[in-house]
Amino acid sequence: MDAQNALATLSGDLIDIISGTFFVVVGLMAFSIAAIRRRSGMRILVWLGLLSAMFGANLLVQSPSIALALPRAFGFLRPYLVTAIAYLTLVVGALVFRELTVGGLRRLFNVWLIAAVAIAVAGIGWFLISGSGDTFIVYNQLLAAAGLAIMVVTLSVPKLSKRYLILSRHRVLTVGMLIFGAEALYANIARPLNYSVPNLVTSLGFAVLLLAFGYTALDMIVTNERRLLSIDKELEIARQLQFSILPASVPEVPDLRIAASYLPMTAVAGDFYQFVRIDQHRVGFLVADVSGHGVPAALIASMIKVAMHSADGYAHDPSEVLRCLGSTLSGELRGQFVSAAYLWIDGERRTARYSAAGHPPLLCWRAADGALAHIESNGLLFGVPVDSDYPACSIALASGDRLLLYTDGFTEPENSAGESFGDRKLEEVVRNNQSSPAPELAERLLDELRAWQPAGTTQQDDITLIVIDVT
């Protein structure tokens, strides 16, 4: 007899068990997709997955057949689960709606979310105190109906949907919302009038809504993926263009050995360097660093290349080079700043001149006495709304001397203790490798910089380094 009763119970619950299992599996699949992709825009899949899993769990928890199959302890937990799901489903639904909105409607759904959380806390709390789980359920239902109505109206009115939704296409979601709204309205009218509403009708209504949301979410994700792919392609083109404005190779000067390293933080960088070769023995070195990163900084770095043409006639005069650059860039920086350093070397006369605009000092290694000097001859950064002079200093060179120009991306990286690589560590590496050729020193400096930072640390700034050996 018990077996017959159990079989009859199972037959009556079969649809609910299948529906509940289906919605739980759909929820787990949504979680899996979101976990695998791990990109922006996947949050809506997480909320949809949770909403589906909660709806399915509610059907399974309330199934008498499931209750008979589980241990008796489940009977004690069952009312708690039913109450928690009844109130928290609205909270998750508010999170789903919120992901689709912008502007004033998003702020409205933020308020709706807070109200849903407050009702959930009150309802669940009152159940824990009194054992009654239905005390606040009417407020939960009214809030759900209000949110559903707001969303349906927004979807149905083109001006509202264009202004307040992030969706470019929402016809499927509109139809799904209307079907679900009709089912919910029917259920809320029929039940007070003592008309029976089969769970299958409710499940079908929710399935239509879930499929509409799922289609919309996937459409959003695919659109974002295409947009990101387009951006990636554009960044790759921008990267190629930027590298095309940098020197293809270091100049061959009989009296000098030159090495240059350029490591952008992102696809495009705000660092820039250029060689200005006048003849066989005379060459200028420009290094610049634009504040910020990415495309805006890269655009200004490209402008420096153009601005440098106005200073070609003054290549032998670092002060005039920087003055021309500052004057040309002053109206184009739009609140950004640029540091720069310009070094002019006459290899035949063994002399150099140097000037800078808010840039890290030039390092000068003297082979004769093993001294390492910091040469600072700075004016103000480009972009500061104050006229500035750029004093130049003269440097006598001898065979074996070494000069280093670099951007602050080289000295600012920190180790696990929060200590910057800094000028001191830079000096140490230079001293310990004084006999290494310029290319080897540049590579050793980069290796030391990588070793200084904790494993797995990503590059935090663009890096440019030029090493010049006097032979």
Would you write up a description of this structure?
The protein is of the alpha+beta class. The protein folds into 2 domains: 2-233, Rhopdopsin 7-helix transmembrane proteins (Up-down Bundle), CATH 1.20.1070; 249-470, 4-Layer Sandwich (Phosphatase 2c, domain 1). Helix content is 56%, strand content 15%. The protein contains 13 helices and 11 strands. It has helices spanning 2-37, 43-61, 64-69, 73-99, 103-130, 137-156, 158-164, 171-190, 199-245, 294-307, 318-329, 422-432, 438-452; strands at 256-263, 271-277, 282-290, 338-346, 351-357, 362-366, 371-375, 378-379, 393-396, 402-406, 463-470. The strands form 2 sheets. Strands 2, 3, 4, 5, 8 and 9 form a 6-stranded mixed β-sheet that branches. A 5-stranded antiparallel β-sheet has the order 1-11-10-6-7, covered by helices on one side. It is elongated and about 105 Å long. The relative contact order is 0.07. The model has no long low-confidence stretch (mean pLDDT 83).
CATH fold node name of the largest domain:
Rhopdopsin 7-helix transmembrane proteins
Oligomer: single chain
Q: Rg to the nearest angstrom? A: 34 Å
Secondary-structure class: alpha+beta
Please describe the structure with a list of short key phrases separated by commas or semicolons.
six-stranded mixed β-sheet; Rhopdopsin 7-helix transmembrane proteins; 471 residues; Phosphatase 2c, domain 1; 2 domains; alpha+beta; 15% strand; 13 helices
